[in-house]
């Protein structure tokens, strides 16, 4: 299984077959999702102009891909080589992506698993929606964006 690498944005988001394989070589890795999204949805999208100051998201490995989750529920493949994230689905602006100090070590920790079981979460990320419960950490607070509906408790919360 070690011969199947954990995917990073620069390898995951590639030009369509109608373009040369080198067409996106000069596009920064974090911005390739915007090119890919334009092609997949057949419409123009414009990346945000600036950063949201003081906001960051955690990167995690999900099914053998480094991803970052958006507040809208979408997620994109990211890379430690360009730790930025902006969502083409909702337009959420550029934020910093927090990777582990040694991303290769996290990749190595899941390398012997089949790709669909390669999942890893940053130790400080208490907000991941699909992270298994951890008895050594308190459950994160329940986020209830719709106060008119009852809150849904998180996994592992009592």
What keyword list fits this structure?
single chain, 158 residues, alpha+beta, five-stranded mixed β-sheet, 14% helix
Give a verbal description of the structure.
The structure is a single chain. 14% of the residues lie in helices and 17% in strands. It is built from three helices and five strands; from the N terminus they run ααβββββα. It has helices spanning 9-12, 32-41, 103-110; strands at residues 51-62, 65-69, 75-77, 84-85, 94-98. The protein has a five-stranded mixed β-sheet, with no helix packed on it. The chain is globular, with a radius of gyration of 17 Å. The mean pLDDT is 86.
Brief synopsis:
The chain is α+β, with helices and mostly antiparallel strands.
What are the low-pLDDT stretches, counting only 5+ consecutive residues below 50?
none
- Computed over alpha carbons, the radius of gyration is 17 Å
Q: Distance N terminus to C terminus? A: 37 Å
Count of individual beta strands: 5
Helix/strand-derived category reads alpha+beta
Sheet with most strands: strand arrangement: 3-2-1-5-4
Note the beta-strand portion. 15-25%
Order of helices and strands: HHEEEEEH
Instruction: Bin the helical content.
Output: 10-25%
Shape: globular
Number of helices: 3
Largest sheet, in brief, is: 5 strands, mixed
Mean pLDDT metric = 86
């Amino acid at each position: 299984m070690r011969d199947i690498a954990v995917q990073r944005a620069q390898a995951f988001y590639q030009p369509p077959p109608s373009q040369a394989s080198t067409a996106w070589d000069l596009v920064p890795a974090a911005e390739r999702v915007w090119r890919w999204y334009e092609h997949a949805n057949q419409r123009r999208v414009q990346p945000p102009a600036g950063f949201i100051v003081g906001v960051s998201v955690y990167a995690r490995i999900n099914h053998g891909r480094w991803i970052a989750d958006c507040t809208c529920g979408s997620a994109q493949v990211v890379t430690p080589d360009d730790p930025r994230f902006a969502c083409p689905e909702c337009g959420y602006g550029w934020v910093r992506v927090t990777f582990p100090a040694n991303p290769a070590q996290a990749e190595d920790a899941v390398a012997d698993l089949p790709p669909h079981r390669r999942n890893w979460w940053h130790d400080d990320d208490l907000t991941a929606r699909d992270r298994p419960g951890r008895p050594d950490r308190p459950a994160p607070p329940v986020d209830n964006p719709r106060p008119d509906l009852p809150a849904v408790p998180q996994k592992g919360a009592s």
